[in-house]
Amino acid sequence: MTEFLHLMAAPFAACLVLTGIHAYLGLHVIERQVIFVDLALAQIAALGSTVAFLFGFGLHHNANYLFALGFTFLGAAVFALTRFKEEKVPHEAIIGVVYAVAAAASILVLSRASEGSEELKGLLVGHLLFVTWPEVAKMAVIYSLIGFLHWLFRRRLLFISQHPREAFDQGVPVRWWDLFFYITFGVVVTSSVELAGVLLVFSFLIVPAICGVLLGKTVGGRLGVGWGIGVLTSVLGITASYFWDLPTGAAVVCAFGFVLLAVGALRAVIK
Q: What is the pTM of this model?
């Protein structure tokens, strides 16, 4: 047990930090019906990382992070500017196209690197098992600042997410608030992808939010459910990873799938 706590304490702490911010952002994503925006921004951040890698910067170099952040800001601007009051094309379709292009571009860029396949794998699954306490502390500080900003503007952000038509009708500068939302979202995603990988970041965002919607009635209730699900799933995934010698990130993602099925079954029973 001592060895388990020593080896898995930092990964579990990282999962708690990821849960804290992603469960909240996931509620906005569900309300906006842009389920794959996290996956798209994560892939854009990964594209920035691959470009930096091609220029000779390692995945954990500061320049790599800046490249990823810059690419993510461009993606955030695209998503903010392509949202309209009357949508002839669903916003989700645009997000899907951006994701596909970013993923294809990442493959093309890495095809020019001798270690491209290994770097691509790293971007998908991250290095959660080997996370250090300084990395956890850095994430906690960044996410706390983002969370504080969202708390300050929570009413306006929730109003735009839940009632976009009314926001446009009332003259609210929706695109500027969307830009703020997607830029802060992009900072979270960029900071998460290097550590947890694209797949785990997506799972932390969507699964707790879905469970919150299924079991909670208010925003606070849904957020509480989401946080609880994130903690429970982190415990299950990390424990399974240690005792069955499984890749930690992949184990947590699969645990999310298992928990979502269980919550769905519970919702069907209590309906």
A: 0.85
